From TrEMBL:
Membrane topology recorded in Swiss-Prot or TrEMBL: Peripheral membrane protein
UniProt keyword Aminoacyl-tRNA synthetase, yes or no: no
Organism: Scophthalmus maximus
Biased segments, Polar residues type: 79-89
Protein name as annotated: Phosphatidylinositol 4-kinase type 2
Primary localization class, coarse: membrane
BP GO annotations: endosome organization; Golgi organization; phosphatidylinositol phosphate biosynthetic process
Compartment(s) where it occurs, according to its Swiss-Prot or TrEMBL record: Cell membrane; Cytoplasm, Cytosol; Early endosome membrane; Endoplasmic reticulum membrane
InterPro entries per UniProt: Lsb6/PI4K2, PI3/4_kinase_cat_dom, Znf_LIM
All residue ranges annotated as the LIM zinc-binding domain in the record: 3-63
Catalytic activity: a 1,2-diacyl-sn-glycero-3-phospho-(1D-myo-inositol) + ATP = a 1,2-diacyl-sn-glycero-3-phospho-(1D-myo-inositol 4-phosphate) + ADP + H(+)
Compositionally biased tracts (Basic residues): 149-158
Entry EC no(s): 2.7.1.67
Amino acid sequence: MVGYCPICGKPVYFGEKKRSLGRDYHPLCLKCQKCNRQLTAGQHAEYDEKPYCSHCYLKMFGPRETSELDAGATAVSAPESNFHSTDSPSGLFDRSRTGLGLAANPGVAVRISDSCESVLTELETDGSGEEALLLPCLAGGSSSPRGVREKRGRRSRHSSSSDKDTLASPGTNSGDFNHFPDDPEFADIIQRAEQAIESGVFPERISQGSSGSYFVKDPKGKIIGVFKPKSEEPYGHLNPKWTKYFHKLCCPCCFGRGCLLPNQGYLSEAAASLVDTKLGLGVVPKTKVVYLASETFHYSAIDRAKSRGKKYALEKVPKVGRRFHRVGLPPKVGSFQLFVECFREADYWLRRFEAEPLAENIRKQLQSQFERLVVLDYVIRNTDRGNDNWLIKYEKPGEGGDGGGQKDSEWPENCPDSCIKIAAIDNGLAFPFKHPDEWRAYPFHWAWLPQAKVAFSQETRDLVLSRLSDMNFVQDLCEDLYEMFKTDKGFDKTMFERQMSVMRGQVLNLTQALKDGKSPIQLVQMPRVVVERSRSGSQGRVVTLGNAFTQTFHCKRPFFSSW
């Protein structure tokens, strides 16, 4: 549902809204009505449905605890849980909660309304503004949503800005989308990346690969991550590389991967990191979905022309420029993976290890890390795992870790004698909705390595077997993936369920292989299984394989069985 900006009265669309205190603003409209200072979402006060900075609010209306409020004012506090709960907005604004008499949290922005006579703490939800429509009902008012919008529109027509108002710097406000309250360390890295872009340190396009991917830097020019926009994926409409274009032009019958959903590589990257975290493998650098905008990204000519025109209008005709909903290039959604240092392609080190045999303890560490890579790739059914897109960091004894490598605290194994680690990157071509059965088989290239002939170690079995054999854990993993995948505009629940059916089959095979003491090469030779949800299965929290799922074997083979 499209919301309306309470300042200008115009529609606010999803890609450009700035949500604060249950209202949707245009980025340039959210400013103090007294000093015209640009405000941050959730970090301001509101009086009579008008936003004010804390300084002007205290100066004009006094502290929040003084008698400036009406005598009948009540306080409503938000539940002490995350705002992505299953409660509906009507549940959060239940009448039974309004009589608690709790004091407003001093650290939370408040709304003060003469019409409702209430003080409300901010509730950031992902809804469509339903909580704003429920507020008149709490005070017994009878005004309709249409009347509220008309009132806001009349108020916005009477308000005006002088030429001496402070202008907002032209930008894209990509930070409005990047919120990671559960991971402050990752949020700080994204903030540094945004600051670097604002200061002119732009991301650098990576020459390798068949899609648009970028090295993102901090303000000092140090690489801190790899950003892969959705629109610049191998089959995206803004892919700056010509490889896939000629592929589609010359070989249309072999174009694309028929087992994968198009333009979901960024979600696959983030989902692989989620699976890695849930299983405790520690081989995937932390990856999340973020929004970034930069001049070095590949935009269409229309987007660049619109951006130049808006910046020129804001500079030359401020009154016109302030009316734009967004100034600058639009943010791009994509996956952001933390950069790992002192790692090299696995193909390089594997050739070195053949010429220079490893010590027994180092060989066991390599085998343990390799088995974690196998577990990850098999569960997510990675269709693009060659020896050039997983990395190895090897430090010979005595070299130390001062070479700028990844800190041991960021990896699960904190053994001081650990000298070898593996990083699984390029996970964008995973989570198929069916097993490959058309032209190519997309095999795991690590299956031809000598490490794949060794049976899974007891360490690996102890790490993942208890989790993978628990169908309730697998169901929780599917639910977490659902919450991630449903954010995509092209999300299809039926196709997602087919993706999870393939993943459950992979988990079932892996569980059996670990119980039987098989090796990775024996694992990939097992019959391909699809575990579909049974229509008559149990819908409770306790899930078992027998009464909730149906197991089937996928017998169709691709034309090229080993390519």
